Amino acid sequence: MDRDKLFDLCAYIAASAAGLKDEPKDYGPLRLLEVLSRLAALAAEEYGDDFLREVAEEADEGGELVLRDREGFYHFLEELVRRFAREAKNR
Length: 91
Fold this sequence. Notes:
single chain; 5 helices
């Protein structure tokens, strides 16, 4: 992970935290999913981690659900957490 990418991610996190004050409730999980996507992509690139590469791609797709299928979005997040739990057992 190079310095500029890390800086961009930190700036996004700071701006997201500040913006949540006036944003709808569902934006918090959506913004966290964006952070996960970016961080997983950077880690996948740095360490060649296929699991995190898949997570980054799926997180991008899953984020679009919040606009058209709120329940589907939260189901996606729950399944993502279960996948992390299963992967953690294998590491």
